[in-house]
Amino acid sequence: MAVITIFRQAGCKGRYIAENVARTLDYHFADYATAERLMLQCGFQQTPQVYDSVSDFWDRFTRRGMERDQINAMLRSIVLATAQHGDVVLLGRGCFAPLQGLCDVINVRVKAPLPLRIERVMEEHDLSKQRATRFVEEKDALVADFARTSYGLSPDDLTLFDLVIDTGKIDSDAAVRWLVEAATSLVCRPGDPTAAALKVAQVPKRAVAKEFTRRERLRAEKRARS
Q1: Across 113-191, where does the E strand assignment appear?
Q2: Which class would CATH give 3-112+156-215?
Q3: Are 136 and 11 in contact (CB under 8 A)?
């Protein structure tokens, strides 16, 4: 029951890698949209007043004070509950931060040279070089600020990651194969801390189980129709 977290820079093919690793391993896949859905479900049960003031959910992360602290605490509880469920690939939103030092978790950073990332964003989003450059720079600043202000960690600290993959040098499909092999080769010694043994709050735990069960049912229905 491995867990893989992937922190990526814009234009690094991180989503492609994460989705294909999850598909190959038949793991669950969770990204920012999953986190938003789960946090809204849990939030309306735990602290509904936090959710009444801002129309854009993630805009709340630009705020400071009690509201930001409450959202951060809830996000952490969702990440821990998702990891404790196991067999999952977590993409983005600093999910590597609360999952340090666990033997069944592989924390991965995906990067690439800036010019290549800008070129990829130009192609993927049909943007001019100027707009693609601004997009990449703003995205980089946003995700770095999120990790720093939410967890007090910098994604530039490579000691926080078990693997660092440069997709300017390594083909994305090769990266998928590496991570699949890594997930099936993990070694946990007796007494090592694991995500599976994490103590998590019941509300997010139930929300995660419900969400993944719903997805499994939809996949089964799709297979039955094909």
Answers
A1: 163-166
A2: alpha beta
A3: yes
